[in-house]
């Protein structure tokens, strides 16, 4: 692999999918003509090397930033057959060569800028602009862009042509915006056009009643009437984060209205529904549909905004970095690594006391010390419970942080039912998070529901079969299986856990008890020897054997009996 500093131009055709839908053969012919007659000539004239062609876009490398800027402006100024339009982004940065391909920040930032550009516009990063060998009156400063996906630093952006808007500057209205596109009249009857437009206008009016929401004016959204436009383009053009679109279809005296709410940035669907009615009183039906649509989508909008806020757990990048460093130590289970993780997490919280994920991790780190039989740090369990309480009271806690907190109050405060409620919420927030299922399983064991616990523990491993925390999921399985009297399966789960983390004390203790109950004396003695080699002072009377998972009334005697049978006294 070869690393080098270079300037990258990324270009993309606006609304390519819609163009292909309307006229596939004509679009392909126009694209071929532009590529062969215009693009290749301009790249040759400006020293551009075509790195990748993606059908609807291109990645080009330049040795000179000035050549890249001149070429981009020439491309945008050129006549384009078929009337298609381009967006272009340029950035100067380090790239890595792998065969004929290149990747790295040079490409990533150029691609992010291209996605932000308006049709026919060029966006140039501050790094590239600083590299220009001359001033360029055609460019103007568009401000700092702070939300480039996966890019942590602020990027200053320069724009061409002068006078265009890149939608980069911060506006005074920070409310999330929604655009309601004119509902399509699918009836084939022009007379019904007024009904479709009336539905749209009423929805705009009703949504405007929510003060937390910025609704694009009717006249602006109606400029897209009758056009087959990419939703992302609509969002950019109207400054809207969400777009509501729909259709009206009439058959005799019956009418069906459909609607769907779309995230204009990601293109994902947030809500969709249909409404059927009779045209006996068209105005009553119009009012009914408007009310039902607005009532349905408002919670979806609030939920989307909540998730968006939680996806950005902290504004302090240093706090975030400290949290990530703490995570890397958390998985190693040693006293030294645990202490370092606590130190780093505490520093993160010093910078942002409301950082819910960091509070949740801090709570679990103190539990880790207790489970491993390490000396408490500070107030130990009390500190963990305090951190957990902060998470449960936070409106910035995602499902993962909430699960950390619920685990803490379950294991330390023994508030099992409150923890169960928190786990239900965490599972609703993150239904596909392996860690949430794993911790929820442990809580279900503690409230003596082993069948449900086993399902969550198995699902946790299925969701993330290579997870560094899967030893804990196997332990959750082993605990549930032991409660169910399935000692052979419990021993296997313990061995799976030890294959992932051989130093995890709970895995050894559960394996010994399972083998003791099976009467497998040789294997049990070997398991005891392995534990004593790791922790020679540990016995059946040690603090670890008094952990909540071993003291559930219906099973506590079975654990102790298993240890004694195995020879752990």
Describe the 3D structure.
It is a single chain. The protein has 569 residues and is an alpha/beta fold. Helices cover 52% and strands 16% of the residues. The chain folds into 3 domains: 2-160, Alpha-Beta Plaits (2-Layer Sandwich), CATH 3.30.70.1230; 177-311, ABC-type transport auxiliary lipoprotein component (Rossmann fold), CATH 3.40.50; 313-431, Tetratricopeptide repeat domain (Serine Threonine Protein Phosphatase 5, Tetratricopeptide repeat). The chain has helices at residues 16-22, 24-45, 65-77, 105-116, 126-131, 193-207, 218-221, 231-238, 282-311, 317-330, 335-351, 356-372, 381-392, 399-411, 416-429, 434-446, 450-463, 470-483, 487-500, 505-518, 521-534, 556-566, and strands at 2-13, 49-53, 57-62, 86-98, 101-103, 122-125, 140-145, 155-160, 177-180, 184-185, 214-215, 242-251, 254-263, 269-278. Strands 1, 2, 3, 4, 5, 6, 7 and 8 form an 8-stranded mixed sheet that branches. Helix 12 (356-372) runs antiparallel to helix 13 (381-392), helix 13 (381-392) packs across helix 14 (399-411) and helix 18 (470-483) runs antiparallel to helix 19. The chain is globular and about 85 Å long. The two termini are 58 Å apart. Mean pLDDT is 82; it is low at 168-174.
């Amino acid at each position: 692999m070869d690393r080098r500093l270079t300037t990258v131009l990324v270009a993309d055709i606006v609304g390519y999918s819609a163009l292909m839908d309307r006229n596939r053969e004509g679009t392909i012919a126009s694209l071929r003509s532009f590529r062969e007659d215009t693009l290749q000539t301009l790249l040759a004239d400006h020293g551009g090397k075509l790195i990748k062609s993606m059908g609807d876009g291109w990645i080009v490398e330049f040795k000179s930033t000035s050549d890249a800027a001149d070429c981009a402006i020439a491309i945008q100024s050129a006549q384009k057959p078929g009337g298609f339009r381009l967006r272009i982004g340029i950035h100067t940065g380090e790239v890595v060569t792998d065969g004929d391909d290149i990747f790295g920040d040079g490409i990533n930032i150029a691609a992010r800028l291209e996605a932000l550009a308006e049709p026919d516009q060029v966006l140039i990063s501050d790094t590239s602009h600083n590299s220009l060998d001359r001033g360029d009156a055609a460019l103007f400063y568009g401000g700092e862009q702070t939300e480039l996906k996966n890019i942590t630093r602020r990027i200053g952006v320069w724009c061409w042509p002068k006078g265009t808007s890149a939608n980069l500057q911060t506006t005074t209205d920070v409310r999330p915006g929604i655009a309601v596109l004119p509902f399509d009249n699918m009836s084939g009857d022009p007379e019904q056009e007024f009904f479709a437009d009336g539905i749209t206008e009423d929805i705009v009016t009703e949504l405007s009643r929510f003060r937390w929401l910025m609704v694009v004016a009717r006249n602006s959204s109606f400029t897209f009437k009758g056009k087959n436009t990419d939703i992302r383009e609509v969002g950019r053009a109207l400054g809207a984060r969400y777009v509501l679109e729909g259709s009206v279809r009439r058959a005799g005296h019956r009418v069906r209205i459909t609607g769907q709410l779309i995230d204009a940035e990601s293109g994902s669907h947030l809500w969709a529904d249909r409404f059927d009615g009779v045209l006996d009183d068209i105005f009553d039906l119009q009012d009914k549909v408007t009310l039902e649509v607005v009532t349905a989508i408002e919670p979806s909008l609030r939920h989307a905004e909540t998730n968006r806020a939680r996806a950005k757990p902290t504004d302090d990048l240093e706090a975030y970095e400290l949290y990530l460093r703490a995570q890397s130590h958390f998985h190693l289970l040693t006293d030294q690594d645990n202490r370092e993780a606590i130190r780093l997490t505490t520093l993160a919280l010093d910078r942002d006391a409301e950082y819910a994920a960091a509070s949740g991790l801090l709570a679990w780190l103190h539990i880790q010390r207790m489970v491993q039989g390490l000396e408490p740090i500070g107030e130990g369990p009390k500190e963990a419970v305090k951190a957990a309480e902060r998470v449960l009271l936070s409106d910035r806690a995602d499902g993962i942080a909430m699960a950390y907190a619920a685990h803490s109050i379950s294991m330390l405060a023994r508030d099992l039912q409150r923890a169960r409620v928190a786990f239900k919420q965490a599972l609703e927030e993150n239904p596909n998070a392996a860690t949430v299922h794993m911790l929820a399983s442990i809580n279900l064991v503690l409230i003596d529901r082993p069948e449900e616990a086993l399902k969550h523990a198995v699902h946790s491993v299925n969701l993330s079969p290579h997870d560094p925390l899967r030893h804990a999921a196997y332990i959750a399985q082993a605990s549930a299986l032991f409660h169910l009297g399935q000692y052979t399966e419990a021993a296997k789960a313990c061995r799976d856990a030890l294959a992932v983390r051989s130093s995890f004390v709970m895995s050894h203790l559960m394996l010994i008890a399972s083998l003791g109950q099976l009467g497998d004396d040789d294997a049990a003695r070997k398991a005891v020897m392995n534990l004593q080699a790791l922790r020679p002072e540990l016995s059946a009377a040690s603090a670890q054997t008094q952990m909540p998972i071993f003291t559930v009334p219906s099973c506590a005697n079975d654990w102790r009996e298993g240890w004694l049978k195995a020879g752990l006294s």
